[in-house]
Design brief:
Keywords: Isomerase. This is N-acylglucosamine 2-epimerase. By secondary structure, the protein is mostly helical. The protein has twelve helices and 14 strands. Helix 2 packs antiparallel against helix 3, helix 9 crosses helix 10 and helix 10 packs antiparallel against helix 11.
Length: 413
C-alpha cells in the first residue's frame, strides 16, 4: 500500500538532504583519514580539524566502524573504498583483538598490545555486528566460525546475571541494566543471517522481555537504566537515572524486530515510550535533547562514568541527538503521525545548525545547553564513525521507501 501524508509528500527532498549529510558531511571526514596505514585498524581520535590525537585501539570503535563501512558498501555506495576500509578493520579485529572462545579484548595500544582485556560484553556485541556486516559486504564466509563462537558465548553471558564483565557499567549483584539488553538485541538482529535463526530470535525475545518486563514494567513510558531483577527500584543516582539516548536507541531497535519475533505488543509500547521520552527530554528553551534525566528531580546529580569527559546532565551530546533522530523518524513512519515528522525535522535542522562544523566537517562531540560547542573534537572518548552515520543511514533507508514508491529514484541507489 502506498504511503500518504506529509512525510510521503516531503520524503524526496528530505531523502536527498539526509543522504548528502551522511556521505558528504560525515563519512567523507572518516574516509580520508581513519585507516591506520602503519599499525592496521582505524585511527579514531581526532581534533576539530581532523588531526590525529592518539592511536590506541578501542575495540568498540574498531568494530563499530567495520559495521558502518561494510553497511555503506552493501546498501548505499558501491565505491570499493568502503569495502577496503571495512576489511582494514575486520583484519585488525581478527589478528589482534580476539581473545578466543568467543570473547574480545577491550583496548589495545597503537602497537597492538592489550591494555584492557576481556572486560566488556559490549565489545563482543559490537564485533558480532562487525563481522556479520563484513561477511555480507564481502560475500565471504571466512569468519563464519568465529561469528558463531561469539554468539554462543554472548548467549550464555547475557543470561548469566552473575557475569561481571559489564564495563563501563559497574557490576552489582541482583541488579540488571538496560544497556546490555538493548545492545544485545540489536547486535543479534544484525548478525541474524549468520546464526541459528531460532536461537537468535529466542535471545532477542529474552532481551525485549527484560527491557519491558523489568526495566520498564509500568505504563508511564519510562525505561530505567538499572533495576533489581524483580523490577524494583535501586535508590541511587544510577537507579533513578533516565537516559534519553539509550531509550530512543532501544526503542527503534525494538520497532525493527518486535513483530518479526512475535512480540507485537512491544511495538506499541515502544512508540508510546518514544513520544513520552521526547516530551520529557526535548529542551524547549534551547532546542536539542538533554543528555540525562532522573525520575525524582535530581537531574543535576548525574555522574559521567568517564571523568575526563565529565558530561553534565543538561548538555547536548552527539550520540543522544543521533538516536533521537532515528527514533522520531521511525515513529513517524510507523504511525503516520505528522507531529513526530515535524519533531524529526526540527531536531535535524537544530543539529545541522549547532553540531555540524562547516569548516572542517563532521559534528562536534558535545555542546553546552545553549547550543555553543564545549568539546569540538571529532573522534575519541567513544566517538567514531558510528552513531551519527548510522542514524543518518537508518533515516535515509526509511525516506527511500517513500521515494521509491513515487518513482523519484532508482530502488538500487
Amino acid at each position: 500500500m502506498q504511503k500518504t501524508g506529509v512525510l510521503a509528500e516531503e520524503a524526496t527532498v528530505w531523502y536527498e538532504i539526509v543522504r548528502n549529510c551522511l556521505l558528504n558531511d560525515i563519512l567523507s571526514f572518516w574516509k580520508e583519514r581513519t585507516a591506520d596505514l602503519e599499525h592496521g585498524g582505524y585511527i579514531t581520535s581526532f581534533d576539530r580539524e581532523g588531526n590525529c590525537t592518539g592511536k590506541e585501539k578501542n575495540i568498540w570503535l574498531q568494530a563499530r566502524q567495520v559495521w558502518m563501512f561494510a553497511t555503506i558498501y552493501s546498501n548505499v555506495d558501491k565505491d570499493p573504498a568502503w569495502l577496503n576500509l571495512a576489511k582494514t578493520g575486520r583484519d585488525y579485529l581478527i589478528s589482534h583483538a580476539y581473545a578466543g572462545n568467543g570473547r574480545w579484548y577491550y583496548l589495545l595500544d597503537e602497537n597492538g598490545n592489550v591494555q584492557q582485556g576481556v572486560i566488556s560484553l559490549f565489545t563482543d556485541m559490537f564485533v558480532l555486528m562487525a563481522l556479520s556486516a563484513y561477511a555480507a559486504a564481502s560475500e565471504s564466509m571466512e569468519d563464519e566460525n568465529v561469528i558463531r563462537e561469539t554468539f554462543d558465548r554472548l548467549d550464555q553471558n547475557i543470561r548469566n546475571e552473575d557475569c561481571r564483565e559489564t564495563f563501563p557499567q559497574e557490576y552489582k549483584a541482583g541488579a540488571v541494566s538496560h544497556g546490555r539488553y538493548m545492545i544485545c538485541l540489536n547486535s543479534v538482529a544484525c548478525a541474524w543471517g549468520y546464526l541459528d535463526g531460532d536461537k537468535a530470535d529466542e535471545l532477542i525475545r529474552f532481551c525485549m522481555d527484560r527491557i519491558f518486563g523489568v526495566l520498564g514494567h509500568g505504563d508511564d513510558g519510562i525505561i530505567h537504566e538499572t533495576r533489581t531483577l524483580q523490577g524494583g527500584y535501586i535508590d541511587s543516582e544510577e537507579g533513578h537515572r533516565i537516559n534519553p539516548g539509550h531509550i530512543f536507541e532501544s526503542m527503534w531497535f525494538v520497532l525493527e524486530q518486535a513483530e518479526r519475533v512475535g512480540r507485537p505488543e512491544y511495538a506499541e509500547r515502544a512508540l508510546h515510550t518514544i513520544s513520552v521520552t521526547y516530551q520529557r527530554s526535548h529542551d524547549e528553551k534551547f532546542g536539542g535533547i538533554l543528555h540525562m534525566l532522573s525520575d525524582n528531580g535530581t537531574d543535576e546529580q548525574y555522574k559521567d562514568w568517564n571523568a575526563a569527559r565529565h558530561l553534565k546532565w543538561d548538555e547536548k551530546v552527539w550520540w543522544t541527538q543521533a538516536e533521537a533522530l532515528c527514533a522520531l523518524l521511525t515513529s513517524a513512519d510507523r504511525t503516520g503521525d505528522s507531529a513526530a515528522w515535524e519533531e524529526f525535522k526540527t531536531l535535524f535542522l537544530w543539529c545541522r545548525e549547532h553540531f555540524f562544523d562547516p569548516d572542517y566537517g563532521e559534528w562536534y562531540a558535545v555542546l553546552n545547553r545553549d547550543g555553543s560547542p564545549r568539546m569540538k573534537l571529532k573522534g575519541g572518548i567513544q566517538k567514531a564513525a558510528f552513531h551519527i552515520p548510522r542514524a543518518l543511514y537508518q533515516c535515509s533507508c526509511i525516506l527511500k521507501k517513500y521515494v521509491v514508491e513515487t518513482g523519484d529514484c532508482d530502488a538500487q541507489t
